[in-house]
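Throughout this chapter, every protein is written as a compact record of paired, labelled lines. An example of such a record is reproduced below:
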Amino acid sequence: MKSNPTRRRFLQLSIGGLVGMTLGGKELIKPALAEELPKLAEDDPQAAALKYVHQTPDEAKHCANCALIQGNDGDEWRPCALFPGKVVNANGWCSAYAPKPS
């Protein structure tokens, strides 16, 4: 049976990457802190498409009580699953708002 060099190379690189991540320490897989991420601008194309605003028009519906928000309760700016690499205002809102389950 003839081996496939592309497949063999893929396996070598995959195993090498896993070993490197394991031996490289936690700094390689350290998550970004919210303070280090840029704030989402209302005129960002993705934000505009979802009608994101920094201040909600409905006080009962805001990012802080949305199921998609991440980070620590009480922080003014927090990561959101919809906007990777950026943080949203906890008082903000977008059309993808989904209330947290009670």
